[in-house]
Amino acid sequence: MEEKGQEGKTDESKTASDTAGSDIAFIKEKVKERPINRRKLLKRTILTATMAAMFGLIACLTFLVLEPVFSNWLHPEEEPESIRLQEEAVNEEMLPEDMVVETESEEETAPPPPAPVVQRVEMGVSDYQKLYGSLYEVAQEASKCLVTVTGVTSEMDWFDTPYENKGQTTGLIVAENGKELLILTDKETVEQAEDTHVTFCDNTFAAAGIKQSDPVTGLAVISVNLDGLEEQTREEISIAQLGNSNSTGGLLATPVIALGRPLGMAASVAYGMITSTETIWNMLDGNYRLLTTDIYGSEKGSGILINLNGQVLGIIRQGGSGEDARNLITALGISDLKNNIVKLSNGQPMAFLGVYGTDVPREIQESRGVPAGAYITGIEMDSPAMVAGIQSGDVIVKMGTEEITSFGDYNQAVMTLLPDTEVTLTVMRQVQEEYQEMTVDVILDVLK
Question: Quick one: 144-236 is in which CATH superfamily?
Fold first, then answer.
């Protein structure tokens, strides 16, 4: 009985042990990792990377678009000032009745003039030295408005070896607009240059960029950022004083100084006088007075002509003299260039109609009945004037609502207009023995 009892207990214990073992058997089972779906993981990775790239691109574009807006809002950038040159003084004429009154008054109150005293004065070498010393002081002061413009281009020699070609010319500081220093110079030197820089009177350098050019006169305006100039340089340089080359008193025999590169070398100086002002260069849509001097210079000379007050009278432009006087310094009168300078300094493109012309002299108006205006002597091929049907012999008397009484008036009117502007011209055309009025609509083109 006891054995049976023990066996029963044993069986019961085995049964309990087996039951307990089965209850915890699941704990001993090995947990298997979930299998990785590589294709799905790759898709998620690509999707995440794509979304990140798109987010970065959108953020970058948003920054690029909004950054200037916020920058201008926080730090507003001032627009360059519009350039305007000082108007030339007009000589006031005295009326006849004023002269009579003054003459009578002087006769009544003024004492008799003293007898003239003639004294012979001999001048020595020192006197000539003082004279030329005074002239050089004027030249030195005026040279502060001059710069040397250097245009650099890359060239290849016969052996395909690259080298730099540097062209140099004179530049004239004509204005500043609050942000840039504006310099008038030769178009040829700077237009094809890959790199342009200027050298100021204190031998400092600055990079320059072309503002606008004029194919007719061969001039251009380049600009230098004022923020890039040292304060000492800005105090040393000066803006040119532009004189009057159309003076009613006449410029014939006026003493002048040629500055810049009149002799083909930098910082060269020459003295002389104006010998002729009668030569007129007939150019496209404008005529320009040529000042001729007795100064012997270089055929490739450049620079300016100034009077003894330091005022600029002309921009040196060689080639206007005859074959027997090619080395004489000649210059385009500054008064005829002022409208061009203003337009170039403001960065405006040059518009053109495409005509050559002249004034109608008063005697021709009276004797032949030709109306006053811009008399057309020639038409440029394929120009807006030719397309509109303007002919040689026509007289332009009005542009839009502005009266035209001379070719100078016509040039000034064109200078105020921009390319692609439509303007109505009032033209007088000779039909048999009389002039008849007609109107022509013209769209101005850009001058290239």
Answer: Trypsin-like serine proteases (2.40.10.10)
